[in-house]
Write a structure and sequence with these properties.
The protein is built from 4 helices and 7 strands; from the N terminus they run βααββββαββα. The protein is α+β, with helices and mostly antiparallel strands and 166 residues long. The strands form 2 sheets. Strands 1-2-3-4 form a 4-stranded antiparallel β-sheet. A 3-stranded antiparallel β-sheet has the order 5-6-7. α1 runs antiparallel to α2. It is elongated and about 70 Å long. The relative contact order is 0.16. Keywords: Membrane, Transmembrane, Transmembrane helix.
Amino acid sequence: MTGENAVRLRPPRNAVDERAVTWWRWQLLVATAVPVAVLAVLGAFIGPARSWLLLAAVAVAAPGLACAAFFPAWWFRVHRWEVTDDAVYVRTGALRQEWRIAPMSRIQTVDTVRGPLEQYLRLATVTVTTASSKGAIRIEGLDHELAAGLAERLTLLTRATPGDAT
């Protein structure tokens, strides 16, 4: 593609839903709570190692809680997505940002996923699988109705887009 129709790297325009901050925070809290609970229970039952196990629980809990307090808001400011007639644009990451573009002609499948917490928060993740060795593009933290409409739109756009001969 050349000229006006060229697909180029540029910042996507759309932010994820604000409820994604809560979803990300809960994911981090659960990821922190599981090892902390295991260490605390072991500390309660293994007397000789109690102080070390409880210290380890605190050592896991402190950075986990800090991450849950800080990162979701940062991710919300960084994560962006956009779908045009030519491509899907996604920017993700906090410390290591990743920008990805999937031309419509390279899209193979479009899936919508809603885990239990996403269902509770009325969120969904749209996964765009391409012919890229880099893997699928995920647009997380979308309102579930927006995600369903986006999946339908992507399906229609890819059906109407001729395959890439390269």
